[in-house]
Every structure is written in structure tokens, then in C-alpha cells.
Amino acid sequence: MSIKAENVKVEIGRKTLLEDVSFAANPGEIIAVLGPNGAGKSTLLKVLTGEIKPQKGEISFGDKNLNDWGFNELAKIRGVLPQSFALNFPFTVSEVALLGRTPHIKYSESKRDHEIALSALKTVEADAFADRFYPTLSGGERQRVQLARVLAQIWEKPENDLRYLLLDEPTASLDLAHQHLTLQTARNFAGNQTVVIAVLHDLNLAAQYADKILILQNGRKIAFDKPKNVLNSGLIGEVFGIEVYITKHAKFYDVPLIVPIGSYARKEIAMSVKV
Amino acid sequence: MREAKIIERGKTGKFSGDEVKPTFIENLRVWIASTNKIAFIILTVILFGVIATAIGDGAVSISLLQIIAIFSSKIGIILNIPFEAQQESVLWAIRLPRVLLGVLVGASLAVSGTLLQGLFRNPLAEPSLLGISSGAALFAVATIVLGEKIFNGFFSEYKFFALPVAAFIGGICTIFLVYRIGRGKGSIDTATILLAGIAVNALAGAGIGFFTFIADDVQLRNITFWSLGSLASATWQSLAIITPLIILPLFCLKSLSRKMNALLLGDAEAAHLGINVEKLKRKIILIVALTVGASVSVTGIIGFVGLVVPHLLRLTTGADHRNLLPSSAILGAALLIGADYLCRTIVAPAELPIGVITAAIGAPFFLWLLLRKKNEY
């Protein structure tokens, strides 16, 4: 009952954004999608959500093709956290979280829906400002509230236990503690039969929390494997253009710890300046 | 599978951002939400107060008791309250249709403003922004100026119908034009549709300018009066034409309002919440076209009601469309009747165009919104 992408190809105009990308994400797994800017990470996520229709290839959620899912049917079990949050109307924080319950509500929300919204806010430590207006919050606070909304959407286990959580840079504007809180929350959901796919930038966060890492470069899949098999200095140097030193996490011995040394591009610039 | 390791925080391990106290407005909102429907009750009381004042006051004064007596005599119950026949005919033939027109037009303008602001996720959107009002005005002005030349003597008999029908057709045509342009390939792009609205507005403005230029003196007076808006043309006949066009779309709002909330998060986000976004947008546009087209056809362009009303309500009763849409309808009706009441009393026995009053209230409000901090409602 996994998410499968097969031979996905996306072209906009003459530019190829994704080329022949295939992978499968299983329940219980967190898949981190990594890659430099413009590698096609967000495009891949948008293909998975259905926002972008691929020119070639198939996407399936469980045993059904993405196109065969009904609008509301999939929304009940699939939460999507977008990259930007363009909400400038004075909803309160708890109202925003409650919006996550939309696919489950037929007429008006029940007491249970309110409880779920509050629990989701507590999970991301946003319950303290539940009554404040969303537009007055800081960037990181907004991001946590949006995460709470998405968690509220898939809070309850459906009959077949299956849920999907797609996160586009969920840690982008968060402080260190909340970056980890977010991924620990994702970890908890994965522990309950949820398929989690997250676009990340921080290699160490990916190393610590992801079960598998999908590395994209220029729209192509470069690697898809366990963190310790993927995160080596050669591959990172090639894809990200950065010199790194790889050591072991002091506490979790199977987690590689990536210590950046410097950008290769910088070195070239420094040298060309000298010449 | 790796176990999640939750790090225990100290009891004081809160973040500075969490300690910001809710503002007065935020507290007010929570209080209003907790009092369950109090906002509706207050708004309804205001509406009926304004209606009673507008019906009762004017050149012929009618007291509240007399109003009740006249109404009950119409359904066969004779109360022991004396009233004159003149009062009855003023109430029945002039004041009541005018107030009812105010209810319909005020409600539809305010609701359309709310819907458009939600649709565009832009708090500065307003029915006239899309060009519906000016499109309707262009068709109406064209009818005023060219009508008699085209239809000759024949036209004068149907003049009563020609103007509303033309304005209505103009409004519908404009919104479909803007919608077509904005729609592009498949999905409706908000920025494009807004710019299309601006372009259509400018074009309609040029057309109106041209017709104003070639109009004779009598036509010019008609154009001026009509383009500033007025409820004075209210008759039972015009009410009968526009009532179904406004009431029926407003009944569809209940099923839309929860989806409208999700739409404020963004098109993609609403789709992720299981909403057929394109279908929802089409419904919104159709409702706005019908209600605004019908309103403008009878009253002319009345600006700013659709801008002011949703803003006042969002800050107090909240941004939730389930409350916002019905309360917009009530406050919009009250505001328009109140403005109309001012129009016909402050320079009595003459009458100001209602657009003068709504613009005098609305334009400074619009400026205030613009000058506030960016991106805040």
C-alpha cells in the first residue's frame, strides 16, 4: 500500500524538470528528497499531489492510480504541507487548524474535530497562541500552524490504517528545536503506518530521521537508498558542490554526521580571484 | 524502524513567541464566538431599526405603530390605531419597495464583495473591481443615448424594461469576458483575472465617456443620475424582476461557505483538502454575476458597499464564511438602507445620489486599508 512513482517525466516548455524518476515509498518509512536548488524536488512533490500532471509515467497511492482517486476520498488520508502559506485573512490559529478537518466534515464540525485540531496544535507547540490571528504570527509560527492543519487532516487512522503525509520543506523557517520536533512528529506518524515523503535541505536532519534518501539532480534520480549508503563525501560533493567530512553521530552510531568544509564553487572563485 | 526520541523540555521551556498576549480585537473575536450568534442578533436588530426608520421618516411621517397597523390592515386585521390614506399609499407605493430594494441590493453587493475577496484572496476586491458594474453601466448608458435613435417611437414604450435588461446583459457579458480571459488554459489565474478586470473597467470607462460626450442635455441628466446610483427607481415591478435573480443565488451560499474558507488557504491547498476548486470558482463567479448584474440594472453603480462590509465583519465576527456571508448580507442591507435614508433626508426635498454617500464613507476606508501595514487583512 505504498506510494509508487514510475518513469515520471515532466517538461515545461523545452525545460525538462523531471526525467525518468521512479521510486516506491512504503508505510512506516520516511523518504527524504534531497538535491540542490532547481533539482526538481518540489516538482516531484507536486506530481505526487496531482498539482502537476506528468507528461509520462504513473503515480499510484495504494492499489489505485492517482487519477482514479476521488477529490475528497484521497484528502481524507493524505495531508500535504505546502512551501508557502498565503493566508492573509484574520482567521485565528485554531480556525486554521480546524480547516484541516474539511474533508471529514459534512455539515458542521463536531466536538471531536475541535479536539483533534487542538491536539494537532499541541503536537507542534502552537496551542499557546491558539486564539491569535494567523496573519500576526512569525514565519516559523505560521509554518507550525500549517503543519498542525495538515496533521489534523490525517489525525485519525482510517479503516485500513493507511495514511500519506507529503511535506515540502517542513523545517524551512523553524528554529532548531522545532525542526526536530517536526521530524519527530513525522516519525511518529510513520510509526503508525503512514507513508511520509519530505523535501529537506538539511543533510543531517535527513540522515537522522529518514529511512531512505532520494537524491535528485537536474531532474534525475541520482540515488535512492538508506542514509548511510547514500551520504558519502563523493556523492555529496558531486551533487551539491560542497566538500564534506563524514563522521558518525555521537549518540546514534548508524547515523552518518555530515560536516561541511566549504563550497567547491567558492574555491574556484577564490582561485580565479587570485589569478 | 528508528524510535522517535522526544526530548523532554523543562517546565519553562517555552518560546518567546508563545508569550505574546492576544490583542483586544483577538479577545473580542473569541468572546463573540463564545456567545453563540450574538453578532447575528445585534445585526438583525440594527437592520430592523434602520428599516423602521427609513419607512417611517421622510416628507410624510409614519410612526412605528402606524406601520404595524397598516401592515396588519393589509392582511385583514384592523388595529385600533388611526392612520391616513396618504400614509398608507406612501408606505405601500414608495417607501416599502424602496426599502426592500435596499435590502436586496445591499445584501447582494456586500455578499458579492465577500465572495470576490475570498475568490481572489485579496481583501481589496470589490464587485466594481471585476468590471461588472462598469460593464453594466456601459450597456445602460448606450441604451440611454442610442436607444431612442434605434427604436424610435417604439422604444419609449419599453423604456422601463430596456434599461435594466441592458445593464443586466452588460454585467453578465463583462464577467464572462473577464472570466474567459483570466481562465487561460484550464485553471483560473487570480492575477490575470484581476488585470483583465482593470482593463475591462478602463475600456467600459472609455465607452461611457464617449456616450456621455455625444449625449444631449436630457440624456446627460439621466446618465449622471444613473451612474451615481439611486434606489429611487424602486417599484414593485422592478422588484419582481430582480428578486428571484438575487434570492436564488444567495440560497446556494450555505453549501459554498465552508469550501470558501479552505479556498483562502490557496488553490492547491484547497484541492488538497478535497475541494473541486474549479467548480467552486465557477459557482462563485456565476453567483456574483447574477446578483450584481441584477442590482446594478435597477440602481446603477453603487460602490464601496462590497468593500466596507466584509472588512468590518471580519474583524469582529470573524473570517469564517459561514458567519461572514449571512452577516454580510444583513449589514450590507442595513448600510445601504441607512445611506439611502441619508440621501433623501439631508437635502430634502431634493435627493442626493446614493453613490455620493457610499463613496464618502467608502473611499476614506479604502485609503485607510491601503495605508495600513501590507499583508494585514
Main sheet record of chain A? 6 strands, mixed
Beta-strand content estimate of chain B: under 5%
SSE string of chain A, helices as H and strands as E: EEEHEEHEHHHEHEHEEHHEEH
Uncertain stretches of 5 or more adjacent residues of chain B = 1-18
* Number of H- or I-type helical stretches of chain A: 10
User: What oligomeric arrangement do these chains adopt?
Assistant: heterodimer
**Globular, elongated, flat, extended or rod-shaped: what is the shape of chain B?**
globular
Uncertain spans of chain A: none
Tell me how many strands of chain B there are. Answer: 0
Chains forming the largest contact: A-B, 55 and 46 residues
Main sheet: strands, sense, barrel of chain B: none
Question: What characteristics describe this protein?
Answer:
heterodimer; A: 275 residues; alpha/beta; six-stranded mixed sheet; four-stranded antiparallel sheet; 12 strands; 35% helix; B: 377 residues; mainly alpha; 0% strand; globular; disordered N terminus
List the helices and strands and how they pair.
The complex is a heterodimer of chains A (275) and B (377).
Chain A: E1 3-12, E2 15-25, E3 30-34, H1 41-49, E4 56-61, E5 64-65, H2 71-75, E6 78-81, H3 93-99, H4 111-123, H5 139-153, E7 163-168, H6 176-191, E8 194-199, H7 203-209, E9 212-217, E10 220-225, H8 227-230, H9 233-240, E11 242-248, E12 256-263, H10 264-274
Parallel strand pairs in A: 3-8, 3-9, 6-7, 7-8
Antiparallel strand pairs in A: 1-2, 1-4, 4-5, 9-10, 11-12
Chain B: H1 24-34, H2 38-56, H3 64-74, H4 85-120, H5 132-151, H6 153-157, H7 159-183, H8 190-214, H9 217-228, H10 236-251, H11 253-263, H12 267-272, H13 277-299, H14 305-316, H15 321-346, H16 354-371
Helix pairs in contact in B: 2-4, 2-15, 4-10, 4-13, 4-14, 4-15, 5-7, 5-8, 5-9, 5-13, 7-8, 7-13, 10-13, 14-15
